[in-house]
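FAQ: What does the model actually see?

It sees only this:
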Amino acid sequence: MLAAGIAIFMCWLVLSNAELVRIKHQPRRADGSIRFLVVGDWGRRGAFNQSRVATQMGRIGWSMGIDFVISTGDNFYNDGLKDVNDPAFAASFTRIYTSRGLQRQWYSVLGNHDYRGNARAQLSPVLRKRDTRWLCLRSFIVNAGVADIFFIDTTPFVQKYFLKTERHTYDWRGLGSIKTYIRNLLSDLDSALNKSTATRKIVVGHHPIRNAGHHGDTKELQQLLPILKARKVDFYVNGHEHCLQHISDTRRSSKIQFFTSGAGSKAWRGYTKGLKRPDLKFFYDGQGFMSVNLGRNKSDILFYDINGKVLHRYGAAQQVP
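And it is asked to produce this:
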């Protein structure tokens, strides 16, 4: 049951040749400030420290009084959900994130592992009825107080999921021509960002644009960068890499901060090759999550491990225009 005072309204925003859902999330605070957690790559029925991460998320979420939780994808391992009746939904979500601090709306995108199963199952309103916290869509916009948050479906961008499937089957139903799908999504994102008057602009996707982990930068997502820079996006937030990291784009005459929160369960890859890149501000190879506190004149982003220890902090008392 969602806490009283959180109102969510959904309407269809028609942009170019596609449709994005715009969701209005009423902040809990009169000044429009918002607080939320970010976790990714988690759905393993509590294994690989997923339950320990969930416990600390609940503790931090309650102390912060969060408005919602963002999932950066790969919600159910190893191959998504089979259908809307798959017991993995309850075993990896409902029965894991039980803390009172996590009884808030969850906004989720699909990851590549989710596309290996029945992708439409995660998008189904049947799951939203089963657990009212759950909301997963391909691409959508959340208007939340001081911030507009743009969720984008990055998996169809990545060519290896079409060319080197490694015997995996991906559920591309409903997308039509992939080239057209991507072209429309880029156009829609650019238009929506341009129209946004929010103090903060955040883009969320499963795959990283900048990445010091073993996957490296996602080359197919570099076409997003000119849009994010031109529209003055503050943060790009992703999962996919099973770690926590912060990369700053300021060396490239941009204010964009890149945050990875993909450490909701299995982690500890032991990869160190990319840790010498000059734009890397923080990297942690273990499990954990992020918290975000945004106001008109502040941004406070913290990374935590499975014990709730703060590992890295960005933007405390930062002044913005």
